[in-house]
Automatic annotation (TrEMBL):
Residues 27-132 form the SnoaL-like domain. It holds the Pfam family SnoaL_2. InterPro entries: NTF2-like_dom_sf, SnoaL-like. This is SnoaL-like domain-containing protein.
Length: 161
């Protein structure tokens, strides 16, 4: 995958860029990179996700669980692609501001929507990743996403929490 991340200046920045490229590749569908990108056991912190029966806490504690989460997040979309707005990295930390560009698919069931197949949906967020200093693998994921915009863009007028 060609990088859409600005060129890095030094060796550590290049390593951070490679980790970020792998992370984005996973979100963009290449889950084969999960075990070479994430520590086997990891810490995940993210927003609660509204459902038709309230909201649910997303609990992820392993690389395999993260891979399964990505697969379920991608389900029902005809297109599901993350673009980088900006990123920065220092030592063993990466922050990335992203935008999801997605297209509703025929089997979209994540939340009820009046949108038809083929309708584009976008929203954005910021992820903060912490790498293991020995292995260079992601050991902590912090995701802050604009779910209000996401649900608004899906045509929802109310969300039960």
């Amino acid at each position: 995958m060609a990088s859409n991340i600005p060129n890095a200046n030094d060796g550590n920045q290049k390593k951070l860029e490679n980790v970020l490229n792998n992370y984005l590749s996973i979100w963009n569908g290449d889950v084969s990179r999960v075990n070479s990108t994430f520590a086997p056991v990891l810490s995940f912190h993210g927003d609660r996700f509204p459902t038709s029966n309230g909201s649910r806490l997303i609990e992820i504690g392993t690389a395999d669980e993260f891979g399964a989460f990505v697969k379920s997040s991608r389900t029902g979309w005809d297109k599901y692609e993350f673009k980088v707005h900006a990123w920065t990295g220092y030592e063993n930390q990466i922050a990335v501001r992203w935008k999801l560009e997605a297209v509703v698919g025929a089997n979209f069931t994540i939340v009820p929507t009046t949108l038809k197949q083929g309708t584009p949906v976008t929203y954005n967020g910021t992820d903060f990743l912490i790498l293991d200093q020995c292995t260079g693998l992601i050991k902590e994921i912090n995701i802050a996403q604009d779910l209000i915009s996401f649900f608004h863009n899906l045509g929802l007028t109310g969300v039960t929490v």
